[in-house]
Amino acid sequence: MDQDDGVGRGVKRSAASTGRAGGVYVPPFKAAQAAVPSDPSTVEYQRAAWDALRKSINGLVNKVNTSNIANIVAELFAENIIRGRGLLVRAVVKAQMASPNFTPVYAALIAVINTKMPEIGELLMKRMILQFRRAYRRNDKIVCLACTKFLAHLVNQQVAHEIVALELLTLLLDKPTDDSVEVAVGFITDCGAMLTELSPRGIHAIFERFRGILHEGEIDKRVQYMIEGLFVIRRGRFADHPAVPPELDLVESADQISHELILNDDHDPERSLDIFHFDPEYTQTEAQYDLIKAEIIGDEELGADGEPESEEEEEEEEAPAEANEMEIIDETGTKDVTLRRTIYLTIMSSLDFEECAHKLLKTPMGEGKEPVLCEMVLECCAQERSYMRFYGLLGERFCRLKREFEQAFEELFARQYATVHRHETSKLRNIAKFFAHLLQADALDWSVLEYISLTETDTTSSSRIFIKIVFQELSEVMGLKKLRARLNDPAYAEFFSGLFPKDSPKNTRFAINFFTSIGLGGLTDELRAFLKVQQVQAEAARAAAAADGDEGSSDVSSDSSDSDTSSDASSSDVSSDGDSSDDQSRAGSSKRARRH
């Protein structure tokens, strides 16, 4: 009996250890996780972390929508999306291809991430451009429609520069087919509102091409109706197709970073970022990303282990965080170059001066950047083949808006006049007409003319040409009478003393001759009268000096004249006899001449 019990107990122990009745089942994936080492420096640990990162990113991207996009962005930043940027871009592209209706949401997600990590936005742009080109070559209309829809919303979010959109439309409409025109219509329907604001000239040229295709009539009737519908949408100013819905307008204009990629360039899709690579410095890399994550989403939102911190911990860390802050000052001038480029593109893409002024005033420039804007306006004006009134009206508008702009243009006038000899004649003419417009419109104070000294020694051929063009333009617009009244205004007399010099007759005559030679002699009437008065006074002074000299010489010779009076009297008697005989001989000869 005891033996049987012992055997039974032995059998039971064996069943508990090896059979299903008494053991615990461990799923294979849990057994694999248990087998993964906890050392971050091993390949197995990093591969497991990579798989976890991929699954987390895919899950977050797949569940993003309009209502939870802010939370999804914070959760994505909590993951190491610098290491997994290839995974993130691939997940977004895949999700967008599967659900094109959610394209505005995915574009808004990328726009927010792009403000902090521009390399992710650039990588997505490269892959979308390459995918579109591949689908375009294969005539894959479905993929083309999905790609162009994503690119259109990236343009709306200003992740993609408008040049990409214009190049894409030019490619689609260069050799129009039913499919290419349909793709172009869908693309411009999605981003037409933004393109109209960013590049009105470009969008006008695209619609002219659509009109030409419609007139040619070589495409299918269905596509022609689509083009006609597009013109109706344009006449309605894309009211039913806003660029960015209000709930997805998450990025401030000052924080937007646009990527200007050329459609036909060779772009590297960086496919190696999609696969696992062993990182020998894994721990340091993760620590660096933790610092970046803390800077982006803030220590107050996430603690060291991803949990919210208490208010006491926040207060304790506020002081050292402020102490560790370092102010970084950019001395490379990169911001100024970017600003100048933005101003140039805005001016070139504007239809009229009012639209241009509105766009430029909306451009975030920062404090004290008014001179940069004024300088760019003048440079763009100088680069034109001939003067365009557009620039004068634009400068006038800025001068009337803020005193800072007027002061900047006054400084520009002085600097341009001092360096006028460096410009070509065409540039010099445009600059002179620009300032003449500001002067005649009273947008620029006439006191700036004090920088001009119209003398032979103080002027060069270039400066004389500049003065000539300025005053001829003023005379043409204002009229000679009104211009003369302005130049004779006593309130500005001290500022015009260099234009009409009265310091010496030579300089005065030079100014009179200059204005007379350019057909504006009527401006020098007062100067001529002044010169005449000066000449009369000079002659009177010379006569007075001569009279003083004559009186002195007569006093010296009075003594000698008294001593010679007796001899003069005797000689006069002798000379009188000779004179009478000479008169008789002259009378006789004249009588003989009359006889003959």
TrEMBL record:
Residues covered by the MI domain: 338-454
Top-rank lineage group of the source organism: Eukaryota
Region annotation Disordered: where it falls in the sequence: 303-323, 543-596
Compartments reported by the entry: Nucleus
Composition bias type Low complexity, residue spans: 554-578
Regions that span the bilayer: none
SUPFAM superfamilies: ARM repeat (SSF48371)
A GO molecular-function annotation: RNA binding
CC annotations in GO: catalytic step 2 spliceosome
UniProt GO BP: mRNA splicing, via spliceosome
Cross-referenced SMART domains: MA3, MIF4G
UniProt KW keywords: Mitochondrion, mRNA processing, mRNA splicing, Nucleus
UniProt-listed PANTHER family: CELL CYCLE CONTROL PROTEIN CWF22-RELATED (PTHR18034), PRE-MRNA-SPLICING FACTOR CWC22 HOMOLOG (PTHR18034:SF3)
Family: Belongs to the CWC22 family.
Protein name: MI domain-containing protein
Organism of derivation: Plasmodiophora brassicae
